[in-house]
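for the writeup, i need someone to sanity check this before i put it in the appendix. the sequnce is what the collaborator sent (i think, or maybe the updated version? ugh). structure was predicted straight from it, no edits. if anything looks off just tell me and ill rerun, i have time this weekend
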Amino acid sequence: MMASQKFDEKTMQSILQAEKDEISEYYIYEKLAKATKDPHNKEVLQHISEEELEHYNFWKKYSERDLKPSRWKLWKYYLISRMFGLTFGIKLMERGERNAQEFYNEIASVIPEAKEILQDEEEHENALIAMLNEEKLQYVGSIVLGLNDALVEITGALAGFTMSLQNTKLIAVTGLITGIAASLSMASSEYLSTKSEGGKRPGRSSLYTGVAYFLTVLLLVFPFFSFNNYYFCLGFTLFNGIFIIFIFNYYISVTKEIPFRKRFFEMACVSLGIAALTFSIGILVRVFFHI
């Protein structure tokens, strides 16, 4: 009896989807293994790609069909991994595998051997955690420091400048100078702090902090260089600030597997709260000093 006759249409479609996912992930891991230079990461990726191929062959026995990988999925996760880091790309793809695990649990009643596939899928997570040795993840603390301070300080400063100066070009120049000085100050402080604590590569830590701070400053100041209505520019800056907070916290929540919502709202509330306070201070400065 043909394997395809043993299952109803819905079950067969699920098997075909699982088979396609496995062959797609096989090619993704294989492609990433060829691209990475780290020997440990390369070995882990190759091992996982071999497991994915075994899983593909397992489902192929039941579907009796050869399937090609999803080109969209292949290039999507490969490019994400190359652009934003191997860990982020793989962890993002791993989130999709959790849905696949639900399928394995359901179909295990029909195909008991699927439990072994599920166990292999669960072991992927431990193997992936073992390969988290990307440099950028080692300096997440420094990046957080730069982003956090820039979002709070510069957003607040620009809000105060907006109400007190009411001139977009003047606000932009003042904010940019303030941001450059603050980024250099933060980088210096991070260098001295890391060195005094005996941390590794204080120069690298200070570089990540300073660059994160400066890039954030550019995104926050940009609207004031581009538009003439200072209220619109302030709104645009606040939007940019929330966008930065969203993107960064999503990145951290994926790579570090920590809750996203709480961290996002905490950072957003602090930044917006400081902006509202300094905006009020700007009004008082304008009134009392007759600017």
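The chain is about 85% helix and 0% strand. Residues 136-289 form one domain.
thx in advance!!
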